[in-house]
Amino acid sequence: MIAEALQYAATYPVTAREFRPFIGSSVSLWSRAGRCAGAWSAHEENCKAFIDDTITGMRQRRTAVVLGSGLLRDVPIKPLSHAFDTVVLVDLVHLASVRLWLMANRLRNVRLISRDLSGFAEAAAGRAPEPLSFLRQVPYLDLVISANLLSQIGVGAERRLERETAVPAPGLVPRLIQAHLDGLAVLPCSTILLSDVSFAVLGHDGETRETADLLHGVSAPQPQARWTWPVVPTGEESRQFSVVHDVAAVRALR
After folding, report:
1. For the whole model, what pTM was predicted?
2. Ranges of H-type helices in the chain
3. CB-based contacts of 16: which residues, under 8 Å, 6+ apart?
4. What is the per-residue pLDDT across 165-198, written as a single tens digit (0 to 9) for each?
5. What is the rounded (10 degree) CA torsion for 15, 62, 194, 159?
């Protein structure tokens, strides 16, 4: 708890006021990632390898943007920084530990932007969400990576709908997920989509107790790779069950 409190306190002053409500969930993710490091390592390495393979096949490497950069555990940030002139990390919150790590490793071509990538505000106001429209203003853009963000758009939207009951809910969550996929599809540069698409709750006997579609019926592009990710390994929340997510990795070279 002391480490979490220090992380929160250090992140608070370097985070814009509108994004401070999200610091707590980022710190919680950081804490869980530390506890589950062994169980998550294969997933993180698979993500990094898929990105590395994509970079190898690219001819132009000027600017890369990472959407949902988070803790940087699933992004090969050093190879990205060495391969591209500029790397832009976009997320709601950039924890103090992430900022310190970037400074310590002297990755001076890495830029941090805090931004809500969900499109929720537009959709709630009755407008067509275009959460990735800002990318049109990024010069010399050659690669965009959506890093395990897509399912979290749905999770975050559901939580906001519980609090903001005046927002018309029917169809909003799949609309936001589709808007993210559409935004990636129309980009003129190469793209990578890494996302968990479903999960299964497994009992201690290995039997499936529950399943859920994290994309709410929206079809993701055909993946080039798939793997499983034990997001909640046995013992993290209970010795009686684990939660395993199915991850899809999609690249489009342009």
Report:
1. 0.94
2. 2-11, 23-35, 37-56, 77-83, 96-104, 120-124, 150-163, 172-185
3. 114
4. 666 667 889 999 999 999 999 999 999 999 999 9
5. 30
